[in-house]
Automatic annotation (TrEMBL):
Protein name in the entry: Cytochrome P450
PANTHER family in the record: CYTOCHROME P450 YJIB-RELATED (PTHR46696:SF1), P450, PUTATIVE (EUROFUNG)-RELATED (PTHR46696)
Matching Gene3D superfamilies: Cytochrome P450
Source organism, top-level taxon: Bacteria
Organism: Streptomyces silvisoli
Keyword Transcription regulation tagged: no
Basic and acidic residues: bias regions: 56-70
Amino acid sequence: MTSGTLLQQITDYANRADPYPFYAELRSTPVARQDDGTYLVGTYYEISGLLHDPRLSSDPRNLADRRGGLTEEEEAGLPPSFIRLDPPEHDRMRRLAMRAFGPPHNPRRIHGMRGELLRIVTDVIDELHGKERFDLVDDVAYPFPVTVICRLLGVPREDEPRFHDWADDIVGGLDLTPGQDFTERQRTAQRARVELGGYLGGLIDQRRRNPGDDMLSALATDQGPDGRMSPIEQITTAVLLLIAGHETTVNLITNGMLTLLRQPQHLERLAKEPDLAVPLVEELLRYEPPVQILPQRVTLADIEIAGTVIPAGAPVWLALASGNRDPRRFPDPDRFDPDRQDNQHLGFGGGIHLCFGAPLARLEAQMALTQLSQRLRNPRLLEDPPPYRRNPILRGPRHLPVAVDGTQEARPTR
């Protein structure tokens, strides 16, 4: 294998359960040009520098060779979401979205949801009562964050099942499942994106006329220093929030339980020390990040990184999961250590595109893992490694079969 085929090995489904040996090989050549012209970057300090470098664009329209064709938004007739824009347009759109989501304009929105989050995750785990086996993905890690993001946006509860289907179809368009028609999967994803956009557009129109205390109402009615999003921008942002607002959290919770079930001493400790949830989730974001790679970056100028010149207009992939295990930055990086100090991981990216929903994802994972550690009796894996999603970017088990001796009643909260 050459450095020019490393990306093929990392994204090969056969290596999905353990891509880390390939990341270790990548770090021996911090910047590896691939046979297709992509530049793959795998070391912590180089990734961190590029995440803060204004010469690295997030807009795929800047590619010298747009081999990938139209973006998903363009195919659905929507403008790019702000994660695919550069300043100053990115900054305007992100500021407008942040006004509806959290600090500094709504500093209590996420904190104020703690009680509701606990009720939702408690109800989800209650559904496991009487089961000796269950799928942690389908029964816990998926329904919990999907319900949360729907409540946050203001989606009527009776419509939540529709979101499950749309989200599955949209994310399924990114999966590389052998034996299936990729073109048909793309068409299904595009159709779901259009239907979801139309549905959210209708809800936004309703909130514009009759606003409530939810994010769709804020997007529709807020008038700040930057003005207001256009109706089509409101739809694009709402679609982004729905998909990004739960997909990564599903993987974070699932990767977290897989790690803890493999190392049950940490699961037992979390059950006794719920305050451990905060550093434990940070270590999970380093050790098994839900987003493995940031693929959509483009150089706006020639950039020299670790002795390699990446030419302007070239595609750049940042291997966050590789940087998170760089021994130059993290001592003993292949060891899961909830007590790790100075844990400035790349699990949420960095720079101006630092994950928008990080505060919510952290809180959801902390609550879910704590509740699972306290309520599951003698949990154990039924399949290891479990079957993984085909998607190499959003890496996590598609199913996580678990056996238990029962479930405990929920503990009273303080």
